[in-house]
Amino acid sequence: MSSYQEDAQALAQLFAHTSDDLQGGYTLSTNLTMSTGSYNYFWGSQEEGGWLTSEELDALVDVGTRNEDSNYYVLTGEHPQPLPELGLDHHDSFREQAVQGLFSYEWHDQGSTARQLTDWIAEDFTSSDDEGVIRAGNGFAGLMEIITDPDIHDALTKTGVDVTEGENEYTNASFTQFNGELADSLANVFDAHIYSFANGDIYDTNDIPVEGIGLYEHDTGLVQMGPQERAMYMQYLMGNDESAGYVVNSVDLYQQIESIAYLDSGNAPSSARGAGQLQALLEQALDMESKNRTDDLDEQIDRKTQITDSIVGEAGSLSEKIPAIGAAVAQALELGQESIVQTIVDGEYDVSPHFPTYTTDEHIERAFSLETLDFVSQNNPGELNKVTNLDDLRILVDGGALSIERNGESINSEDIGSSFTFDDSIMISLEKNPNEWSANTMSELDTMDSAMRDVLKKIDINVDGEEASGASYVSDFVPDYTSAYNTTRNFFDNQASEEEVN
Fold first, then answer.
1. How far apart are CA 406 and CA 410, in angstroms?
2. Of the candidates 91, 92, 114, which has an alpha carbon nearest to the alpha carbon of residue 40?
3. Assign residue 108 a region: left if phi > 0, alpha if psi is -120 to 50, beta otherwise?
4. Facing residues of 428 across strands?
5. How much of the chain is helix, strand and coil, in % rounded to 5?
6. Phi, psi (5° rounding) for residue 464?
7. How far is CA 405 from CA 213, 337, 462, in A?
8. Which run of H or of E encompasses 132?
9. Other Cβ atoms closer than 10 A to 331
10. What secondary structure, in 3-state letters, does 352-366 show?
11. pLDDT reported for residue 345
12. Cα torsion at 237, 239, 240, 242 (round to 10°)?
């Protein structure tokens, strides 16, 4: 053991001073990553009985994970084609132990180096290189296969590591609570593959729940995953305040973009069901993480309340993530380059992230009504000249939902008279978070909803030459969203009931 310790320390010292451009061969890199991860799995930190420091282990992981072919093998168990070198085969359980060891170890840099094992999945999946996209898709499927295994998931969410957050002292923290860099990497992977999370089936054609992780299908860009596996992955992201706030906003952005994609394409079922299902999965992940923390502290934890500040704080930095989400939606719906989704991808459309509250029919209708009104105001504001009851517009302005400017000067509700016209001099913006409205009591919200509903009845949206009122688009979208949301929530409710019985 002494000899191994000295050899490992010497190797770590050597690698710690290598150039960042230096990349080990396939076999060396794989063995470095596998042996270091397995060391962490079996020995752990020095406090747990290990004899290498985090800095020494970090140097070994750094060199090992610079080789993407090696990372691919560690996650999938498949050698790149053509096989670069012979004589390198490990049992799946060895790979799983290595990944678990790399994730669950309490890194001094919060996993800043270890994240190299997964960073490439998000980066390559959104590249223009077809071969790289396929490899990243397969790598994502392999990662999901490993970290959603029930035993590994249990180990990664109950690591035995002590973490203090505010007044709470956790003794069995999730790995993302203390390895924030790894949490961030997994959040990027989630963004790149958000369409797989949103649009997978809950039940198969025989009404049997979908389970496990399927293969990556390059034609669709999707990996079929069971709802439980998707919620497990999202629970990891809920374990870290920053990644949780970030992903909640990503889900909200996805819902906004899907809403706009529907208004641009008329494909209500696809857009609404994905958005509804993703919202339900987010809530399940929050519930799972709340329970995990409650079990650790032996007191009730509301994870949704805990991350509210992070959600608001992260909102301003989300624009860089819109391209990955927008590209997935545009590809799946086969929308053209002139679509509003492409405008979002190009960063030319104002999306306002906020904590999603799409949990009741009332909230869903309000949220999608706002998206519809915003879509019209951004693309064809002249439609608002069809509104005959100007009191409806005045109510929305006074309530804080609708802002109007003419040549840079604000328009008050009393300025909206019979001669008022929405023309090129007018700029319109919507506040899509009702919590920010001045009119947000229950009775005031009823009045705002009624006014918005009446406005949408008067304005028309043209999709492929077919024109219909904004209100009819809302009435088509909401039932599909609600159905997918309820199906997903009911799946987890039924599962919980079965566990209680057993």
1. 7
2. 114
3. alpha
4. 404
5. 65, 5, 30
6. 55, 40
7. 51, 30, 26
8. helix 130-147
9. 13
10. CCCCCCCCCHHHHHH
11. 66
12. 50
Could you tell me whether strands 460-463 and 466-469 are parallel, antiparallel, or unpaired per DSSP bridges? antiparallel
81 touches 133 (CB < 8 A):
no
* HSE-CB of 248 using CA atoms within 13 angstroms: 30
Average pLDDT on 209-214 reads: 96
H or E stretch at 399: none
Strand-pair partners of 402:
430
Question: Residue 291 and residue 95: Cα distance in Å, rounded?
Answer: 29
Q: Which three-class secondary structure state does DSSP give residue 160? A: coil
pLDDT, tens digit (0-9, with 9 covering 90-100), for 130-167: 999 999 999 999 999 999 999 999 999 999 999 999 88
Averaged pLDDT for residues 264-287: 89
Give all strands of the β-sheet with 426-430 in edge-to-edge order: 409-410, 402-406, 426-430
| Tens of pLDDT, residues 3-58 | 556 566 655 555 555 667 777 788 889 989 999 999 899 887 656 666 788 998 99
pLDDT digits (tens, 9 = 90+) for 284-306: 999 999 999 999 999 898 888 88
DSSP single-letter state for residue 329: H
Cα 172 to Cα 147, 154, 178: the distances in Å are 18, 11, 11
Instruction: Yes or no: say if 271 and 334 are a contact pair by the CB < 8 Å rule.
Output: no
Contact 124, 135 (CB under 8 A): yes
Return the amino acid letter for 255: Q
User: Quick one: tokens of 74?
Assistant: 């560690």
